[in-house]
Every structure is written in structure tokens, then in C-alpha cells.
């Protein structure tokens, strides 16, 4: 009788199905369009925490609706446990919260170009932790495709980030409050992405349930921070929906739909492919800026375009294949 190989099984297919491609394309469009939609419909006076919390509530409502539509609400309620929830979603949510704090610290102490370039290392760490936790190997060609993607991301970062000059801080502050935090945040981003993939594929936690749990945990952390944060003070002074208009709901709901898609992409395509989506979305943003704002894409964006297309093509065409041993 043939024995199974030891290791953690993964549910990521060698080649993405049409449904997975649909999720990837929709998420790319959402990521790419979100900055422009937010800029047009969210006024400067809107308190950031209010829009983020409303987005999390919208994500929970959307996920619950999709679960109910599929007839799985009662089953999910009967099977849900606090321990299982904390194991699957609590740790990634806490890691993402810490990652966001580190990114805020780093951004204040680095120029945009250095910050953006170092932030792209999360693609490498996602692939690394996916291998460590899920034993999901990459072929030599796929590793090459990842490096091409990182080069493309760096080129796009140069085009977008060169407008902000150096912070002028002393070298120690740049190192310990700028470079170190963004690198640690990249490591945490890769770890959290791999953990989410592990929870959905190995622990069989549905993407919708993970979205709900992570939104709840993230919202609780954000609510706790309002006790001392400037946003909390602003909410107490002006009200939760200060600066809102009916149009503000458009980017908030659009972002919530993106959160649902992130869960689906992580579950069915994996964290590494999500990295391809993020970089591809930068090209979509550049294209939309040209169409709606008349801002032509930078030279670096034009250079990055063939690299992104080539890397996606190589990554899909040459998946890792297990070498069969002769019996």
C-alpha cells in the first residue's frame, strides 16, 4: 500500500482555476482603484478610525450574508469555538495590528523611497513562511519570478516615492526607528499571511469566518486605542461620523468587498499569489490615474509592466513538481 508523504498538506493547486483567476483579477482591480475612489469620496475632515471601523463592520455584514446565502450559518454557529477562533484568527489579527504600528513608526523616520523599497521584502518573507509552515515549495523558475516581481515593485516604488525627500534624521534614528521596524513589519506580514493560509487550508477555517473573526479582533484593538489616540479625542469632540457624506460609504463598502476578496485569494490562491496581486494593482492605479486624472505613468512604471507580466507568466507556467521515486 502506498504511504503518504509526511508533511503539512496544502490546498493550493499547481495552476489557478477560472474561479481563482476571477478572485485575483477582482482583487487587483479593487486594490488598484481604491486609492482613487478614497481620494474622491472621503473628505479630509473624516476621522480615519471612523472609516476603518465602519469598513470592518461592513466586512462582517458581507461575510455573514455570504455564509447565510450558502446555507452554512447554522453549521458554522454549532462548530464555532473560542479556542479555535483564537488559534486560527486571533494570532494573525494581532500580528497585523503590530505590523501596522511598526509601519507607522517607520514611515515617520524614512523617506518614501527607502520605505517602499524595504516594504517589498514582504514578498520574500511570505514565500519563506509559506514554505516553513505549509511546506509549499517553489520551483527554481518560480523563485526567479518572485525576484522579478520584487524588482518590479522596487521600480514602481521609485516612481511613486521619489517625491518625498529624506527625513534628515540622524543615522541611529533612521536605523532603529526606520529600517528595523519596516523589516520586522515585512517579516510579520509574511508570517501572518502564511498563518492565514494555514488556518484556511489545514484547520479548514472558512475564509468568510476568518474575515469575521479578524475584523472583530482588529476592531476591538482599534477601539481600545481610541482611549488615548488623537482620533479617539476627535470622535469624542465632533462625533463618530464627523465629515461624512453619503458618498463616503462608496470607498468604505468598496474596501470591505476587498477584504472579503483578500480572504478568498489567501484561501484558494495563497499568500504568494496575493503578492502578485498587490504589485499588479500598482500598475492598475497608474493606468486609472492616467485615464481619470491625466497623469501619465512614470518611466519606472513602464519599465515595471513587462517585468510583472513576465513574472506572473513564469510563476503560473512552472509550478513546483514533486519528483516521483521509482518503487
UniProtKB/TrEMBL annotation:
Main localisation: membrane
Membrane topology: Multi-pass membrane protein
Entries under Pfam families matching the protein: Nuc_sug_transp (PF04142)
Record's protein name: CMP-sialic acid transporter 5
The keyword Nucleus belongs to this UniProt entry's keyword annotation: no
GO cellular component: endoplasmic reticulum; Golgi membrane
Family: Belongs to the nucleotide-sugar transporter family. CMP-Sialate:CMP antiporter (TC 2.A.7.12) subfamily.
Cell compartment(s), UniProt: Membrane
Keywords: Membrane, Transmembrane, Transmembrane helix
Keyword Membrane attached: yes
Organism: Vitis vinifera (Grape)
UniProt record, GO biological process: UDP-N-acetylgalactosamine transmembrane transport; UDP-N-acetylglucosamine transmembrane transport
One GO MF term: UDP-N-acetylgalactosamine transmembrane transporter activity
Organism superkingdom: Eukaryota
Transmembrane segments: 20-37, 49-68, 80-97, 117-134, 143-162, 174-196, 208-227, 247-268, 275-291, 297-315
Amino acid at each position: 500500500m502506498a504511504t503518504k508523504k509526511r508533511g503539512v498538506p496544502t490546498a493550493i493547486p499547481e495552476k489557478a482555476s477560472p474561479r481563482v483567476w476571477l478572485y485575483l483579477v477582482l482583487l487587483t482591480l479593487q486594490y488598484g482603484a481604491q486609492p482613487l475612489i478614497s481620494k474622491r469620496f472621503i473628505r479630509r475632515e473624516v476621522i480615519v478610525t471612523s472609516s476603518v471601523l465602519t469598513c470592518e463592520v461592513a466586512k462582517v455584514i458581507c461575510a455573514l450574508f455570504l455564509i447565510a446565502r450558502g446555507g452554512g450559518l447554522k453549521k458554522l454557529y454549532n462548530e464555532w469555538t473560542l479556542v479555535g477562533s483564537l488559534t486560527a484568527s486571533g494570532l494573525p489579527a494581532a500580528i497585523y495590528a503590530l505590523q501596522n504600528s511598526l509601519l507607522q513608526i517607520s514611515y515617520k523616520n524614512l523617506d518614501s523611497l527607502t520605505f517602499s523599497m524595504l516594504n517589498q521584502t514582504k514578498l520574500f518573507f511570505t514565500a519563506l513562511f509559506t514554505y516553513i509552515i505549509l511546506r509549499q515549495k517553489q520551483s527554481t523558475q518560480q523563485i526567479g519570478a518572485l525576484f522579478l516581481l520584487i524588482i518590479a515593485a522596487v521600480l514602481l516604488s521609485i516612481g511613486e516615492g521619489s517625491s518625498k525627500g529624506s527625513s534628515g534624521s540622524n543615522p541611529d534614528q533612521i536605523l532603529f526607528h526606520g529600517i528595523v521596524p519596516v523589516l520586522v513589519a515585512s517579516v510579520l506580514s509574511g508570517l501572518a499571511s502564511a498563518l492565514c493560509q494555514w488556518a484556511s487550508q489545514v484547520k479548514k477555517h472558512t475564509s468568510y469566518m476568518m474575515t469575521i473573526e479578524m475584523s472583530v479582533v482588529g476592531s476591538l484593538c482599534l477601539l481600545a486605542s481610541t482611549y488615548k489616540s488623537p482620533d479617539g479625542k476627535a470622535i469624542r469632540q465632533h462625533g463618530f461620523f464627523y465629515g461624512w457624506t453619503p458618498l463616503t460609504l462608496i470607498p468604505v463598502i468598496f474596501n470591505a468587498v476587498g477584504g472579503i476578496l483578500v480572504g478568498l485569494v489567501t484561501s484558494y490562491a495563497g499568500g504568494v499569489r496575493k503578492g502578485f496581486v498587490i504589485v499588479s494593482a500598482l500598475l492598475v492605479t497608474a493606468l486609472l490615474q492616467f485615464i481619470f486624472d491625466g497623469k501619465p505613468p512614470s518611466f519606472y512604471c513602464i519599465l515595471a509592466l513587462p517585468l510583472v507580466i513576465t513574472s506572473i507568466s513564469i510563476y503560473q507556467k512552472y509550478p513546483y513538481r514533486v519528483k516521483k521515486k521509482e518503487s
